[in-house]
Amino acid sequence: MLLVRILILVVLLLVFVQDLLSRSVYWIVFPVLTILFIVARVVLHQSLSEIGQSVLINCGFLAAQLLLVSAWFSVKQGKWVNIMSQLLGWGDVLFLLCITFYLSVLNFLVFYIVSLMGVLALWLVGQMLISKKNRHIPLAGFQAILFAVFLINSWWLMPIDLMNDDWLLHFIIK
Q1: 65 pLDDT exceeds 70?
Q2: Torsions phi, psi of 143, nearest 5?
Q3: Regarding predicted confidence, which is higher, 86 or 59?
Q4: Do 29 and 36 form a contact (C-beta atoms < 8 A)?
């Protein structure tokens, strides 16, 4: 399991570096990351039906979110706007699809919200500190590094199971 964890962290670092340097990520990284996430869950004795159920719900949420954002920008501009061609990169969406294979439903929602706020904060601070301004946010890269921090925390610092919502439900209910 240690090897799988290290490989996951290496691939997440690769996503970060590639997205930061070139605003693109090699496509092969995403299937590799997905396979590593599935292996990590299976090694921990999760069934494929458990994995599939959370993946379907997470993907449904993500699809609804992307559709709502497209609808919002379409209404705002008075014509249909494909956010994938103008506002969001394929790497950003593919990265989010990858993590649906690792995170449980509530953990995915928490990570999604926290990472979007964190990425925005990082990008705004970065824009204030550098002289060369850039409109494009390396979303997948920043989310990958934040996800690596989540994983490191979960695996070695604070034993929280990101593949199970119980800890979060316990935290919310109390």
Answers
A1: yes
A2: -65, -35
A3: 59
A4: no
Q: Smallest Cα–Cα separation from 134: which of 26, 27, 22?
A: 22
In whole angstroms, what is the distance from residue 53 CA to residue 69 CA? 25
Q: What is the dihedral of CA 29, 51, 106, 97, to 10 degrees?
A: 30
Q: What is the pLDDT of residues 149-168, one digit of tens each?
A: 999 998 888 878 888 887 77
CA distance 106 to 130: 36
Q: Give CA–CA dist 77/135, Å, rounded.
A: 19
Phi and psi torsions of 21, nearest 5°: -80, -40
* HEC string for the chain: CHHHHHHHHHHHHHHHHHHHHHCCCCCCHHHHHHHHHHHHHHHCCCCHHHHHHHHHHHHHHHHHHHHHHHHHHHHHHCCCCCHHHHCCCHHHHHHHHHHCCCCCHHHHHHHHHHHHHHHHHHHHHHHHHCCCCCCCCCHHHHHHHHHHHHHHHHHHHCCCCCCCCHHHHHHHHC
Show the tokens assigned to 132.
Answer: 């060369």
116 pLDDT tier (thresholds 50, 70, 90): very high
**Token duo for residue 91:** 């790497």
Sequence-ordered list of residues with C-beta below 8 angstroms from that of 31, at least 6 positions apart, any chain: none
